[in-house]
Amino acid sequence: METGKIPGGYNGKILRINLSMNNITTEEIDESFCRKYLGGAGFIAYYLLKELRAHVDPLGPENKLIFSTGPLTGIKASGFARHCIGAKSPLTNTIAKSEAGEFWGSELKAAGFDGVIIEGKAAKPVYISIIDGQVAIKDAAHLWGKTTKETQDTIRVELDDKRVRVGMIGAAGENMVRYACIMHGLYDAAGRGGLGAVMGSKNLKAIAVRGHKPPDMVRPEAVKELRDWLVANIAKVKLFQDFGSGGYMTPYEASGNLPVRNFRDGLFPTVAAIEGKTIKETIRIGMDGCFGCLVRCKKVVKTGDPYNVQPEYGGPEYETLAALGSNCGIDNLAAICKGNELCNAYSLDTISTGGSIAFAMECFEKGILTTKDTGGLDLRFGNTEAMLKLIEMIAKREGIGDLLAEGTAIAAEKIGKGAMEYAMHVKGLELALHEPRLKTGLGLGYMVDPIGADHCLNLHDTLFVMNGQMNDLHPLGLLEGVPADDIGPKKVVLFKAMHGLRMLGDCLPVCMILPFSYKQLADLTAAVTGWDTDIAEQIRNAETVLTMMRLFNIREGFGEADDKLPMRFFQPKTDGILSKTHLDYEKFEKAKRFYYALMGWNPETGIPLPEKIEELGIPQI
Amino acid sequence: METGKIPGGYNGKILRINLSMNNITTEEIDESFCRKYLGGAGFIAYYLLKELRAHVDPLGPENKLIFSTGPLTGIKASGFARHCIGAKSPLTNTIAKSEAGEFWGSELKAAGFDGVIIEGKAAKPVYISIIDGQVAIKDAAHLWGKTTKETQDTIRVELDDKRVRVGMIGAAGENMVRYACIMHGLYDAAGRGGLGAVMGSKNLKAIAVRGHKPPDMVRPEAVKELRDWLVANIAKVKLFQDFGSGGYMTPYEASGNLPVRNFRDGLFPTVAAIEGKTIKETIRIGMDGCFGCLVRCKKVVKTGDPYNVQPEYGGPEYETLAALGSNCGIDNLAAICKGNELCNAYSLDTISTGGSIAFAMECFEKGILTTKDTGGLDLRFGNTEAMLKLIEMIAKREGIGDLLAEGTAIAAEKIGKGAMEYAMHVKGLELALHEPRLKTGLGLGYMVDPIGADHCLNLHDTLFVMNGQMNDLHPLGLLEGVPADDIGPKKVVLFKAMHGLRMLGDCLPVCMILPFSYKQLADLTAAVTGWDTDIAEQIRNAETVLTMMRLFNIREGFGEADDKLPMRFFQPKTDGILSKTHLDYEKFEKAKRFYYALMGWNPETGIPLPEKIEELGIPQI
Hey, which of A86, A114, A495, B549 would disulfide with B450, CB 3.0 to 4.6 Å? Predict the structure, then answer.
């Protein structure tokens, strides 16, 4: 490997902006670095592990907010409009990383950078413009307090470019709601872990990007081949194309995967009212997509009074339909669309928002919270108005919204009175809207994933079969699937493999909806970069990244005891298909320890073995 | 996978012969069994783990002696004339397995069987004939005490077939010398672990095989392709073709790999007198090879008085040249050839024989053994006559030969007086003739290999680079070699991969000299069997087999404390290139534990984790 040379797929440049110092620098990265960490989540793990001290305040100037593309970002084919954002999470104190699509990542790369590291804290609100290699820090006083739509519109006018792409926060980010997200355009969030709060803590309202440099690649013909393959295999993503992710609502309710009323219940008989097909037939006015994508799974909706929404904010994804819908006992589709609009306008993660509201609702029904706490709000499950009101209050940190803006774990701690029993989180991250009682691999993933109960873990039990990704496991020596409800050693091995693949997907990065096999992606990486790389090397890279994230969390004081599911899942649901099903605590503890062993971590403590760290070539920390 | 169906490459039949009962049965094996255990060492690990109780006397009727072919045995191309033999070792009490070439395995397969399991003990000496599916137990009273040549000649006359192939023992096997081997023809030994003693303990003199059924294969054209590839790449094995394994003597002495005087010394200035080139130029009268092989690495030699040898016994391999030569301080080539002839005639493993003699010589020089013990023999290093005399005495268990016939570990225990310091063994198996002070991967292999200090472990640091097998490691995510003297985590990972590949080679089985990549071998297996298999699946199978062998040993009471090198290696040699080099005890202990972790074994105890056992699908024992 030639040191210094930069392969296709990379600009070889990381932009570092210190907002305390008003300092803008460009750093070079070399080929060996790119090949080892790939990009996306890999770069983020590297910089956060290397540059952050232990126990920095995630909302203080010492935290760093990192935007990173990867070798596949910006390729003109479906699925490659991705970038990853990371920081120490103010919600969990673990490492946070979250991905987004839209056009922002592709523009950043076309503007000449592979990533941006934001340090320090601006003295007053600012935004950053990155236009074809030119970088500027600009005043954002007039944008502070504005919605994402107002912010994007204003910046586009100021920069005199309707096609400039804006990553930004609304009021929730400014108010440092611990699960504020970063919006890219008006309906693409890097949602999880409170990255928007970190952005707000730095007085950074937005980063606007625009570029014109097409990505370098060594064998561009591979892109056309992949496009042709997708056209021939588009049936594999037909459900997404037809209905978006909301197409899963009804089958998920039937199988028991759909959380109902804070994961307490199983039946949601009116699910058809809020599912993708209904959306299509009633309120949908179009579909939209990310850069270069022909799947176009993003719904655009139009509703009437009293829940009139601005179509520019898009429609709710599956996670949002379940989070603000069934998990709050709500089946009013237009109201959910309104809630989605509010979250996107204020930059709130819909999953954690819905989880916090559902938590509050169950506490209210249990008498742990009363109208005295809620300022008169009747927080029973199913109260549509209360749900919408709470979103506003959370974003603005008003009344009980200020408490719920801390996330379920901190809120439950503050409330006391046994509220923690109803806080559906792992390490402080609200559970994604997928049921571990049904999918044990997902449950194990919730336990051990470095960021907590991530929604991308859902793939481990379901989509990979649909998408033929079992084929990717053959090179790992895995020949067969394992039943969803099995949490024995074979499932753990399968989980570890899938988890590695998903982390790999976040390093390249690539959209998890597309039906490409990881072998195809490795071949594409080879074609783009010119490396003689393959899936095995890339999985190893991804496992290195997972171990680095583990090390980050261990440095923050996390350990084996934090890798645990809420106790609710060791009891059955009240009704529905899983009313007789609960998880076995001991089996999950064993599975967790075996996962540690497979990762080369101490099976008792979950701490990576020194030999494993050395072998993976993880730098001294 | 269709149960019951037998894929190409297998007969689907295991022959089981109980010599106590005079009972001959045939058992069927099915496709799932074949795919999981492959054959060779895999079948042996399965049957020994399943069928042997703990702590049976390895020289009693309860031990079982298993001959096994694999899917590639008998393919008409270089390297596939292999079979594997296993039993509980009378030398070590661990599992024993050892491979041989020649024509025997190919004939067994052509006779309609994939393997033979020998049980019980015959009331009087017998031999077994297996001719085209017909099996008979025959009287061998007249063969008892005969040399291998006499035995083979007689059996061929009796069976009226000059091309019958004979696996057999000489006096050493009959006398249950704990490191007696099983000879196939007159110069192909399944050498290690005392399998010949097990055969002798069963009163079984020989197994004669002959068959005419060509092996089934699904895509026979793959064999021609591989042959063509080898012809085009024959330069990769030129040293073997020109000089046999003896070609390595001089470069090994120069690099420090050649053991001198019981691993004590480093310099052997007269090495040129006993190396492959000298053999070629002085005493070699031809080269011979195994079934189907164009490398033909087996030397045939002719010497004059006083060390006149019968050319039918072949010439010494590298291990023999070093074991009876440099490691005993002997540089008389003809005498080494004579020693080689004696070992082959009596069925003695030349490695353990040389190791035992070198041990006795060092004890003698240290005064731990005296002429009183040796019956007057002057056992100083370099005494050629003493070396030859001891071979006879060991084979016949005469005088001190009876003690040395127990192997160095038991002999040292019996001698006491600090003799153990000079016993160069791991778990009782005498060290192969490769220097762990030079090659740390080899050293780790000596420690953890299930059979002890095996010579095949040599490949882990050297040949695989020559043979381009580093390419095989790329699919495992390994990109680069590690220096020979490094025993850090990267070397452990590399070792684990190589060790798995080598065990895979013993399952297929295939000769380790051939320069095929394991990907080529996996593709060939797929072509032969029709399975959609690949290297990753096969490595997983091999690691399953390694774990089963580990479980066998643990059942016998072995544990982490037995995985250790002789203390000599933590001190430098007296002279030569390694006179300043010694191994670091703590580093090796760490490496051992990390290897356990990588295997899914408890890092402290080396016991396979229950979850790993379950995940690999190893049957309950």
Answer: B549
> What's B145-184 look like in SS3?
CCCHHHHHHHHHHHCCCCCCEEEECCHHHHCCCCCECEEE
Compute the distance between CA of residue A413 and CA of residue B352 in angstroms, rounded to an integer.
69
Specify whether the CB–CB gap between A600 and B489 falls below 8 A: no
Radius of gyration of chain B from its Cα atoms, rounded to whole angstroms? 22
- Between chains, do B479 and A537 touch, taking CB under 8 Å as contact? yes
Residue A195: CA count within 13 A, CB half-sphere: 29
CATH ID of B235-430, from 3.90.1300.10, 1.10.569.10, 3.40.50.300, 2.30.42.10? 1.10.569.10
Single pTM value for the model = 0.86
Round to whole Å and give the CA distance between A67 and A118. Answer: 8
How do residues B374-387 score in pLDDT, each as one tens digit? 999 999 999 999 99
Which chain B residues in 522-551 lie under 8 Å from chain A, judged by CB atoms?
534, 536-537, 539-540
pLDDT of residue B236: 84
Nearest by CB: B493 against A488, A590, A615 = A615
Residue B605 forms contact with A (CB below 8 Å)? no
**CATH dotted code for B13-210:** 3.60.9.10
Q: Which residue has the tokens 């012969």?
A: B17
> What tens digit of pLDDT does each residue of B396-434 get?
999 999 999 999 999 999 999 999 999 999 999 999 999
Of A72-86, A370-384, A508-522, B86-100, minimum mean pLDDT range: A508-522
- Residues on chain A touching B590 (C-beta within 8 angstroms): 611
Q: Give the residue extent of every domain in chain A.
A: 13-210, 235-430, 440-616
Å between B554 CA and nearest CA of chain A: 20
- Look at the domain B440-616 and name its fold: 1.10.599
| A519 phi, psi to nearest 5 deg | -65, -45
Give the A:B interface size as CB pairs under 8 Å.
Answer: 80
